[in-house]
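HUMAN: Please help interpret these tokens:
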Amino acid sequence: MIHSDLIQWIECFAPVELACDWDNVGLMTGNLSDRTKGILFCLDLTLSDIEMAAKSGFNLIVTHHPLIFDKEAVIEESSLLKRKLDLLKESGITVYSAHTNLDFAPGGINDTFLKKLKLTDPRRDLNNHLFGQLPAAESLEDFYDRITADFESFNARLIKPKSIELDDGIVSVAVCCGAFDGETAWLLENRIDVVVTGEMKHSRALELMELGIAAIELGHYETEIPGVKSLASHVKKNVQDQLAQDGVPLKLALKTNPYFDLIGFLE
């Protein structure tokens, strides 16, 4: 198997045509014609991930967040990115990124998130805004407690407008993995009760509070890692025979959440 064989399955799952115009998806560095020796899937590519991959003989890394966000940018010689690119080149490792195309793909980041929230009647508008319904009304407090536990979010935050009480029932839920920083008119049009996302700016949280829409921040990592696992499972399922035949290991890097779980540490 060569890298391009595996990338073919990734692009069937998350077509590059789904990516936003501003995004940088696809090959970041390396050569897709190299023979695959080991595959690492990760949300973000850290220096320690590269070192681990090199030590283990993995030569293909698939990330969600692009290693290079701006392909026109000048890479400073002393930057962390330059250190990563140099180590990747020295180690013969190819990096491929599936970002907003994976966000919007059926079974991708947002879809996986919606299913884990146990939402029904999923809907996606023309601008890729995704929302669904709870099977039955659930109090805002119970919903918050349930999903923070399900996603093991130790740094979750609740934006609660004065017009909403903790015991008020909610039904309509909008999902936005990673960060919510888009328009809000569609939330009002679809009568959304609560937005569940990874993180949002102070100004956006204030806007939702004034509009009377609750929001829950679960953490960027917590909302996106399930979708990365879904992509890895899809690839493994479709090429497992070839992986086994060629003796190619597949691994998922899970330790890239930059926030420290002080509560868990103290317990």
Remarks:
- The first helix runs from residue 3 to 13.
- DSSP finds ten helices and eleven strands in the chain.
